[in-house]
Design goal:
- The complex is a heterodimer of chains A (251) and B (291).
- Helices cover 37% and strands 27% of the residues of chain A.
- Chain A has 251 residues and is α/β, with parallel strands linked by helices.
- Chain A has one domain: P-loop containing nucleotide triphosphate hydrolases (Rossmann fold, 3-Layer(aba) Sandwich), CATH 3.40.50.300.
- In chain A, the strands form two sheets. A six-stranded mixed β-sheet of chain A has the order 6-7-8-3-9-10, with helices on both faces.
- In chain A, helix 3 crosses helix 4, helix 3 packs parallel to helix 6 and helix 4 crosses helix 6.
- Chain B is mainly alpha-helical.
- Chain B has a single domain, classed as MetI-like (MetI-like fold).
- Chain B is globular, with a radius of gyration of 23 Å.
- Classes of the chains: A alpha/beta (251), B mainly alpha (291).
- Chains A and B meet through helix 2, helix 3 and helix 6 of A and helix 7 and helix 8 of B.
Chain lengths: 251, 291
């Protein structure tokens, strides 16, 4: 099995508060890994550390290693811009820019200096198709993204992340702000994308993890309790905490 | 029937009193202006190019005053806007946190300098400097007035811009960061396009502030009612004309009525500027509201 990211002894702090405690596991490439656990267990902090989104908080600090392609992305000199090109992210609430659909998807390419109209066009179309939103918006790509429904906006955000050709896509509870039908569409998109991309999704919804995850990591109070193949975790967890969570003892 | 309590009454009456006062002001302006047109034709008043209120017969052409006001205001706005933007960018993106705080305090402090002090600086320091450097007949001119008005307006404009940039939706900033955008790319490609509406309304509000400002232009614009051609010409803007001449004008004379006419012109132009500013703001808010 191949691994995209190797997490070694990762600890994270906000001020004095330890949010993540010695997380160590490898994230398999070209598969969906779901991060589950009760709220406040550090799931979001964990994936936001992978693309160093937490750097903007002055009191945030992380130790340990996250190895991408043999390099520790947590090291000081690691270039953030190229990290974020390789590790894309989709957020909890759809956050398109108040620009046209086309401009939204082309944004990442344009800031990385791609100006060729043909390349831009092709990437925009293929990204929209991969995110299964092309059919609904193809008639007018100049439409302001705010005019789209929540589910369409979220798929547009997936397309926007795909356009810069990342290897890993991080999703932070991407369906928590949208309706069940749109959720199903996004889950289908993610399953298809997992053939070509490494997908890490945070979810508080066990059913969702059961539907789409190949691997599940269970977090509790900042610690990784259990990691393994999805079926195994769901049917015969080794740890009592995992079992309690799955059976709804706490949520 | 609804019960009316004391608070309701106070709110209701203060709302209506302010409306009534505004209407009274408009009425007062017109009441003291209209008699002018018994002596001078409106065409001469609005489009006449000579303002000589003390010659016989007096000439009340307000066009050179209006042109002076517009020139000074536009020139000042052209200076204010980019400088404020640079100050804001420095404060929010470049300066370390401690210096940012100091700068903010400094800006607040700067905005509390009375305009008469700025006028004094323009009059005593900048004017002789301009006169020598550019070899002019007088350092009291449109350029000097615009510069001083710019100093007056920057604190307000910069502090409003800073508010908008600091409160810019964090989701959009993160969305751009997650695509590998640098701070400067986020600023130019996400924030500034997204803040077109607020920035337009900041421009309008600054314009309103500059337009009605009297003390500075009275002191440093040169006080010469000629048709200003270059920015180094002295001029006499609308507001300065009233301030300079009202004191020596007898009530009920044509000059007196003409000065009220100038007041009415300032009032209406400021009103239009403010309405446009409001309209831009409302349109932006509607655009930003997600359906």
């Amino acid at each position: 099995m191949e691994f995209s990211l190797k997490i070694e002894n990762l600890c994270a702090y906000f001020g004095e508060k330890k949010i993540l405690d010695s997380i160590t596991f490898d994230i398999p490439s070209k598969a969906v890994t779901a991060i589950v656990g009760p709220s406040g267990c550090g799931k979001s902090t964990f994936i936001r550390t992978i693309n160093r989104m937490n750097d903007r908080f002055e009191n945030f600090r992380a130790s340990g290693k996250i190895i991408l392609d043999g390099e520790n992305i947590l090291s000081k000199g690691y270039p953030l811009e190229s990290l974020r090109m390789r590790v894309g992210m989709v957020f909890q609430r759809p956050n398109p820019f108040p620009k046209s659909i086309y401009e939204n998807v082309a944004f990442g390419l344009k800031i990385h200096g791609i100006k060729n109209k043909k390349v831009l066009d092709e990437t925009v179309y293929s990204s929209l198709k991969a995110a299964a939103v092309y059919e609904q918006v193809k008639d007018d790509l100049s439409l302001n993204a705010y005019k789209l429904s929540g589910g369409q906006q979220q798929r547009l955000c997936i397309a926007r992340a795909l356009a810069v050709k990342p290897e890993v896509i991080l999703l932070d509870e991407p369906t928590s702000a949208i309706d069940p039908i749109a959720t199903k569409q996004i889950e289908e998109v993610l399953e298809r994308l997992s053939k070509d991309y490494t997908i890490v999704i945070v979810t508080h919804n066990i059913q969702q993890a059961a539907r789409i995850a190949d691997y599940i990591a269970f977090f509790y109070l900042g610690k990784l309790i259990e990691f393994g193949k999805a079926e195994k975790i769901l049917t015969s967890p080794k740890e009592k905490l995992t079992n309690d969570y799955l059976t709804g003892v706490y949520s | 029937m609804r019960k009316i309590n004391a608070v309701d009454t106070i709110l209701w009456s203060s709302g209506w009193i302010s409306n009534v006062i505004i209407i009274a002001i408009i009425f007062f302006l017109f009441y003291n202006w209209m008699p002018l047109f018994r002596m001078v034709s409106p065409i001469e008043f609005f489009f006449g190019t000579k303002w000589y209120p003390t010659v016989v017969p007096p000439l009340y052409g307000t066009l050179p005053l209006l042109v002076a006001t517009i020139e000074i205001s536009l020139f000042s706005l052209i200076l204010t806007f980019p400088i404020s933007l640079v100050v804001t960018i420095f404060m929010t993106f470049v300066a370390p946190k401690k210096i940012r705080y100091l700068l903010k305090v400094f800006l607040e402090f700067f905005s509390s300098i009375p305009s008469v002090v700025l006028g004094l600086i323009g009059l005593s320091i900048l004017s002789s400097y301009l006169q020598n450097v550019f070899n002019l007949d007088t350092g009291l001119n449109i350029f000097n007035a615009s510069l001083m008005l710019t100093f007056l307006t920057i604190p307000m404009a910069a502090s409003m811009m800073e508010d908008f940039i600091v409160s810019f939706p964090i989701e959009q900033v993160e969305g751009a960061q997650a695509l590998g955008a640098t701070n400067m790319e986020i600023l130019w490609k996400v924030m500034i396009p997204g803040l077109k509406g607020p920035f337009a309304s900041i421009a309008m509000l600054s314009m309103g502030r500059i337009f009605g400002e009297t003390m500075i232009v009275l002191m440093v614009a040169g006080n010469a009612a000629i048709f200003p051609l270059s920015v180094f010409d002295p001029a006499k803007p609308l507001s300065a004309t009233i301030a300079a001449e009202m004191g020596e004008t007898a009530v009920g004379t044509s000059h007196f009525y003409a000065l009220f006419g100038i007041g009415a012109i300032i009032f209406f132009i400021t009103l239009v500027i403010n309405i446009i500013g409001e309209w831009v703001r409302i349109r932006y808010e509607r655009e930003m509201r997600r359906s």
